[in-house]
């Protein structure tokens, strides 16, 4: 599991996917999310603007898990 430190209160899901390298661009992040390939805390998330907080765990099909610290 990869850990990513966020210096702010939260990060938006689309931004996180780009930061982690799971998505090459915002469009790629949007496609991953809309295709149901991203789970936040074991629930499929379809909103690119979902606020991700420290302690959340994101699972991306074909990439793995990310924990926000």
Description:
The chain is α+β, with helices and mostly antiparallel strands and 69 residues long. The chain has one domain (2-68): Structural Genomics Hypothetical 15.5 Kd Protein In mrcA-pckA Intergenic Region, Chain A, CATH 3.10.290.10. The chain is 25% helix and 30% strand. The chain has 2 helices and 7 strands. A 5-stranded mixed beta sheet has the order 1-7-6-3-4. Strands 2-5 form a two-stranded antiparallel ribbon. A hairpin with a 3-residue loop joins β6 (57-60) and β7. α1 packs across α2. The longest helix has 9 residues, at 26-34. The mean pLDDT is 95. Keywords: RNA-binding. InterPro entries: S4_RNA-bd_sf (IPR036986). GO terms for molecular function: RNA binding. It comes from Vallitalea longa.
């Amino acid at each position: 599991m990869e850990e990513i430190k966020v210096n702010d209160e939260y990060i938006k899901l689309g931004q996180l996917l780009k930061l982690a390298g799971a998505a090459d661009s915002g469009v790629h992040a949007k496609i991953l999310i809309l295709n149901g390939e991203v789970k936040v805390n074991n629930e499929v998330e379809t909103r690119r603007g979902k606020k991700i907080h420290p302690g959340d765990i994101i699972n991306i099909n074909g990439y793995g898990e990310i924990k926000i610290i």
